[in-house]
Amino acid sequence: MTASVRVAGERLELAGQVTADNVECLRQQGEDWLSRQSGQSVVTIDLSSVSTASSLLLSLLLCWHRAAVARSQTLTYEGASPDLLELSRLNGVSSWLTGSL
After folding, report:
1. How many Å apart are CA 40 and CA 74, to the nearest integer?
2. What's the predicted TM-score (pTM) here?
3. Could you count the other beta carbons within 10 Å of the beta carbon of residue 77?
């Protein structure tokens, strides 16, 4: 399954598998969406339809995180799989994925 981003109300839904072939396009789509959320200080990314956890996915989420911080926004993530949570813990980035400090 190819990956996609979809606006669902006030959240962005990421679905499918992030690969080297689609990560740049997904990054741009997410950053464009973030730029249109200028009135919101907290924005949500729904990860419940992501099919696999990978370092590419973490990289994409980190890019979105940095873009949000640059706009004084806080990203919240919902629906992260146990595999993605474990991968983020192993890579030392679980605090921004889970919101815990």
Report:
1. 9
2. 0.89
3. 21
